[in-house]
Amino acid sequence: MTENQARDEICRIGRSLFERGYVHATAGNISVRLDDGFLITPADACLGFLDPLRLSRLNADTLQISGDVASKTIALHAAIYRATARFDNKKRCVIHTHSTHCVALSLQPCSEELLPPITPYFVMKVGHVPLIPYHRPGDPNAATLVAQTIARYGERGTPLRAVMLERLGPNVWHDSPAAAMATLEELEETAKLWNLSQPKPCGLAGRQIQELRETFGALW
In angstroms, rounded to a whole number, what is the distance separating the alpha carbons of residues 195 and 190? Predict the structure, then answer.
């Protein structure tokens, strides 16, 4: 993907997320890792009305070189790219939203992970989603904790595609903006299913998860 293609794709994904209610107002951000730096949505930008020429362009050290002022979350995005590179250097896009059902779920008493494995597609397309304790927006300690969490899961053979920032929203990452958006969609829909289900469903059994590993390469 060229830089111009990445710019257009960020704007396309942002508009799609906004129009379908995954983001609102100026919440959320999208970044793409380039060979020599990063693109990220500007601070306080509405993802539904992005201009590809005004996206923030940063070098490999996250120093801004053009575009509008970068989102403060670039430190977190860069930490995610660095941490995931130990296990998979193909990750090219990070998306952060304040998706309603994910945030609502994080307001309730939760375990160390946002959701149990209640559907096969959640297991296959998203996987484990660790819950990161609340930090104020932009707190560098959150970036450190997310990187440590990615390392801990990766070292035990379960690379992550997402984490949930308590009271703020999910961060998801994948090989392209389209793939990252699909991961976010599956995560938000699974959170919606969980929030709407009464009584709460049991997670898939161990043998069922093993079958998904063997058949589809699920990383649970």
Answer: 9
How far is residue 149's CA from residue 98's CA, in Å, rounded to a whole number?
Answer: 20
CA–CA separation, 184 and 6 (whole Å): 18
Backbone angles phi, psi at 13, to 5 degrees: -65, -45
Whole-prediction pTM = 0.96
Number of residues that this document lists for the chain: 220
Catalytic residues: 121
- CA-nearest of 211, 108, 98 to 164 is 98
What is the average per-residue pLDDT within 131-150? 96
Distance CA 177, CA 22 (A): 15
Within 13 A of 185's CA, how many CA atoms are on the CB side? 12
Give per-residue pLDDT as tens, 167-195.
999 999 999 999 999 999 999 999 999 99
Q: What is the DSSP letter of 52?
A: G
Q: Which residue has the tokens 């829909």?
A: 189
